[in-house]
Design goal:
- It is elongated, with a radius of gyration of 25 Å.
- The protein has a 4-stranded antiparallel beta sheet with strand order 1-4-2-3, with helices on one face.
- The longest helix is centred in the N-terminal third of the chain and has 20 residues, at 29-48.
- It has 4 helices and 4 strands.
- β2 and β3 (84-86) form a beta hairpin.
- It has helices at residues 29-48, 58-70, 89-93, 126-131; strands at 50-53, 73-78, 84-86, 101-105.
- The chain is α+β, with helices and mostly antiparallel strands.
- It is 33% helix and 14% strand.
């Protein structure tokens, strides 16, 4: 029997002269800095479990709100009575700067960030799969 050679040595790419070759997209320095800041905040929260954010730290709050929208963090606001209230992503983006926050790692599967209509509750019932 004859073996099939998988590597092709005689393929020559045809390029048109004078046509620019595609290059990797250039990332702006501000976008790169934002990604570094997001990663640093997420690493700090994941390493420590929770992280307190000062009331006036608007930049950190914006980064945390963005990470909450992506599902990486849980944001809680410290109230006047020292009670924590979990913020929805829409609330976190428009949050006031006069209250401190506590950031924590998002618990996947423990709670949904959106409400589920009563007609669709059966989709999320863990006992329904066991009885089938």
């Amino acid at each position: 029997m004859r073996s099939v050679h998988t590597a092709i040595d005689n393929v020559v790419p045809f390029r048109r002269p004078g046509r620019p070759q595609p290059q990797a997209p250039v990332v702006s320095p501000s976008l790169a800095a934002r990604r570094v800041d997001q990663r640093a905040l997420m690493d700090a929260v994941y390493a420590s479990g929770t992280l307190a954010v000062a009331a006036g730290d608007r930049e950190t709050k914006l980064i945390a709100a963005r990470l909450q929208v992506y599902g990486f963090l849980t944001v809680e606001e410290l109230g006047e009575d020292s009670a924590l209230r979990r913020l929805r992503p829409s609330e976190a983006i428009r949050a006031q700067v006069d209250r401190p926050w506590r950031l924590s790692k998002a618990a996947y599967g423990s709670g949904l960030s959106v409400t589920v209509p009563a007609a669709d509750d059966f989709l999320f019932d863990s006992s329904a799969g066991a009885s089938a």
